[in-house]
Design a protein that fits this description.
By secondary structure, this protein is of the alpha/beta class. Helix content is 30%, strand content 26%. It is globular, with a radius of gyration of 15 Å. It is an enzyme of class 2 (transferase).
Length: 180
């Protein structure tokens, strides 16, 4: 994987093969950040990266100037890799080793962007639980967005607060926003 833009543009990061991850493809990541770049100043936002895996999305935000980033994953190896990588690049990424659903149930901090990249083999109920917890616990700031990455074969348009989705190759991003 590589960092697409910002201070660390072009840097390649190689994760250990033993990690149970499926990093967002460079093509999909670039398309996602093109959307976000038109809506946010990256140095003014707070990001929560759920099911963070290799930290791919967190590194991209950090490279673009975001200083308030929290990466949550239940796998110790993933958290260790994110810590080592963010330390080597001097990136401001805070890590939390926790089950994402437990984290969402107990968190009180609001974020501008919440990005979730759960396993593609989740059933629809598990996908549905992510926006339910985010909105029930009011974890988004005003004008914030929840983005859930999933297979293009998964349809999340029936979930409350769904706004729209975009597909790139086999990846889809569903966007959820507070209804004002």
């Amino acid at each position: 994987m590589r960092i697409i833009s910002g201070l660390y543009k072009g840097r390649r990061i190689t994760a250990p093969k033993k990690l149970p991850v499926r990093p967002t493809t460079d093509m999909a990541k670039e398309a996602l950040f093109n959307i976000l770049n038109n809506q946010y100043y990256f140095d003014d936002i707070s990001v929560l990266d759920l099911f963070s895996g290799t930290g791919n999305i967190s590194y991209e935000f950090a490279s673009r100037g975001t200083e308030n980033i929290t990466a949550v994953d239940s796998n110790f190896g993933c958290i260790k890799f994110i810590n080592e990588t963010s330390d080597s690049f001097d990136m401001p990424i805070n890590t939390v080793k926790n089950d994402v659903f437990k984290f969402l149930e107990n968190s009180k901090l609001k974020h501008t962007i919440i990005f979730a990249d759960p396993p593609y083999n989740f059933d629809v109920d598990a996908f549905t639980k992510i926006p339910e917890l985010v909105f029930k616990n009011q974890l988004l700031e005003d004008q914030g967005v929840l983005i859930v990455e999933h297979s293009k074969h998964t349809d999340l348009s029936h979930i409350n607060q769904f706004s729209y989705s975009k597909s790139y190759g086999g990846n889809s991003f569903s966007f959820f926003e507070s209804v004002q």
